[in-house]
Automatic annotation (TrEMBL):
<dbReference type="GO" id="GO:0007520">
    <property type="term" value="P:myoblast fusion"/>
</dbReference>
<dbReference type="GO" id="GO:0016477">
    <property type="term" value="P:cell migration"/>
</dbReference>
<dbReference type="GO" id="GO:0005085">
    <property type="term" value="F:guanyl-nucleotide exchange factor activity"/>
</dbReference>
<protein>
    <submittedName>
        <fullName>DOCK1 protein</fullName>
    </submittedName>
</protein>
<dbReference type="GO" id="GO:0005737">
    <property type="term" value="C:cytoplasm"/>
</dbReference>
<dbReference type="GO" id="GO:0031267">
    <property type="term" value="F:small GTPase binding"/>
</dbReference>
<dbReference type="GO" id="GO:0005886">
    <property type="term" value="C:plasma membrane"/>
</dbReference>
<feature type="domain" description="C2 DOCK-type">
    <location>
        <begin position="1"/>
        <end position="116"/>
    </location>
</feature>
<dbReference type="GO" id="GO:0007264">
    <property type="term" value="P:small GTPase-mediated signal transduction"/>
</dbReference>
<dbReference type="InterPro" id="IPR027007">
    <property type="entry name" value="C2_DOCK-type_domain"/>
</dbReference>
<dbReference type="InterPro" id="IPR056372">
    <property type="entry name" value="TPR_DOCK"/>
</dbReference>
<dbReference type="Pfam" id="PF23554">
    <property type="entry name" value="TPR_DOCK"/>
</dbReference>
<comment type="similarity">
    <text>Belongs to the DOCK family.</text>
</comment>
<dbReference type="InterPro" id="IPR026791">
    <property type="entry name" value="DOCK"/>
</dbReference>
<dbReference type="Pfam" id="PF14429">
    <property type="entry name" value="DOCK-C2"/>
</dbReference>
<dbReference type="InterPro" id="IPR035892">
    <property type="entry name" value="C2_domain_sf"/>
</dbReference>
Amino acid sequence: QIAVPIEDVHRTHLRFTFRHRSSSDSKDRSERIFSMAFVRLMRPDGTTLRDGEHDLVLYKGDSKKLEDASVYLSLPSERNLSESKLLSGSSFRVSGATSVLAVSARDSFQISTLVCSTKLTQNVNLLGLLKWRSKPSLLCGNLQKLMNVDGGEVIKFLQDTLDALFSIMMEHSETDVYDTLVFDALVFIVGLVADRKFQHFNTVLEAYIRQHFSATLAYK
């Protein structure tokens, strides 16, 4: 279990290094790294690392280069991102690096991850709605796509999602373009909370209505 402060997640990655084991603890500590794999916690689209198994690329080369993030971070970390290159056993040369990091084609390394967060989502459609102000031109599409987001992911961000929906209504009170879409989204969310699987979130919704709801222009 690794706890990462929310403000550091965007620039954090996990590095897995491999050394030889010996019968001597002191010798173990002095052994150089012979292979390395890494994975970023954030994806380029702003979502977090997906839950589940990841087939990571194992790199071999100079041990100092294997520990130098500036050398390997520009390379692919998962096999399915560059399958054709990896199957050929190619070496990747990083610009500015004096040595080559080669893919260890005969070895494999899999990890299984589970991200626990109420601030970072794994769903790009939900992220688009929560950050709707950054791309207002996509707002209609993001509202429609909310209904396709996994219910558990929406429930996890219940207050943030409701805040976004009411903010949209407040900031577009002069037009009815988004009214029906927001209304449909609210019905979808209430329907989720009514589902037996998420019924323990009923108290969260009640608390939101009583303590947090303050969208006067959306009250009706």
